[in-house]
Design a protein that fits this description.
There is one protein chain. A five-stranded mixed beta sheet has the order 1-7-8-6-5. Strands 2, 3, 4, 9 and 10 form a five-stranded parallel beta sheet that branches. Helix 3 packs parallel to helix 11. By secondary structure, the chain is an alpha/beta fold. The chain is 44% helix and 16% strand.
Length: 296
């Protein structure tokens, strides 16, 4: 059947649109009555260590393209680790398997500093373009690679580019993962429901507002250009924290070493961390720790 022959969405029977909507849904809220130690607010910082994998996925193998990712590993990661160590903050690093295999010493440095290493695809593939068998094979291989390089079986996943296919949740359940961090149905954690069935999997929601890439992405061959000054991003993220703190909820941020790791952007991340730290009752935690706490 060609695209022209396929029924248009307004031609679908009710059963079709209900099936799409019900495939993966937000279930019961997982907002705890309190955070560990009586903290008022949880803060979960995360970094997607994509490095060269985005270029490799797109077959952009020129030294210039790959050098942008190399910056993340060579310069961004050390700056991030120094900031986290200075403030004694545990974070989660979502790592494509190819990044881990290229730099096993980097993975060891995450673990040695008390950070979590979690899944982020094989080579930052686009799940929605893959058949179920290929997506499953890459996920299983990625979990094995992270276990070999980190010494720990990963307990959480963030799909590359938050690209969540019709098969992703089934694969996540097969892997026995405790949480996902790719969906956007709430500000705070919730249980994922599959076809009306509670799964027990915790969703730690993401959002483009709390991601550095939309503000700072640059591609000289397309219309992607940085459109927000770092100080303006600081204002947005500070407002996100203030609201989470007032609600007694969770602030989750998604960042990338090759994006946030530049000097002017590390300056605003440093300022944000220092601002958050001035508030009493803050629990800085890995995504795995957040998932374990809200699941109870």
């Amino acid at each position: 059947m060609t695209d022209a022959q396929r029924p248009k969405p307004w031609e679908w029977p009710e059963s079709t649109w209900r099936e799409h909507v019900d495939l993966v849904r937000a279930g019961r809220p997982l907002v705890p009555s309190s955070w560990p130690g009586g903290a008022r607010c949880a803060v979960a910082l995360s970094f997607d260590s994509d490095h060269e994998t985005i270029s490799l996925r797109d077959c952009e193998t020129s030294p210039g393209a790959l050098s942008r990712g190399e910056f993340g590993a060579r310069t961004g990661v050390p700056r991030i680790l120094r900031l986290l160590a200075r403030h004694r903050i545990p974070a989660t690093f979502f790592v494509p398997a190819v990044s881990a295999l290229l730099r096993p010493d980097e993975i060891a440095s995450y673990v040695g500093d008390g950070h979590e290493v979690a899944m982020h695809g094989w080579i930052h593939e686009r799940n929605a373009l893959l058949d179920a068998g290929t997506e499953r094979d890459l996920a299983l291989r990625a979990a094995d690679a992270l276990e070999r390089t980190s010494g720990h079986r990963p307990v959480g996943i963030r799909t590359p580019s938050w690209d969540f296919s019709a098969h992703t949740l089934d694969i996540t359940r097969e892997l026995g993962l405790a949480y996902d961090s790719s969906l956007m149905a709430d500000d705070d954690c919730y249980e994922i429901v599959a076809r009306g069935e509670p799964t027990g999997i915790v969703e730690i929601p993401v959002e483009w507002i709390r991601d550095d890439a939309p503000y700072f992405t640059m591609d000289r061959f397309s219309q992607s250009r940085p459109y927000t000054a770092p100080r303006d991003v600081l204002t947005i993220w500070r407002d996100e924290f203030d609201a989470a703190y007032a609600d007694g909820g969770l602030l989750q941020l998604t960042m990338h070493p090759h994006v946030i790791g530049h000097r002017s952007r590390m300056a605003i991340l440093t300022e944000l961390v220092e601002y958050i730290a001035t508030h009493p009752g803050i629990w800085f935690a890995t995504h795995a720790d957040v998932a374990a706490h809200v699941r109870g």
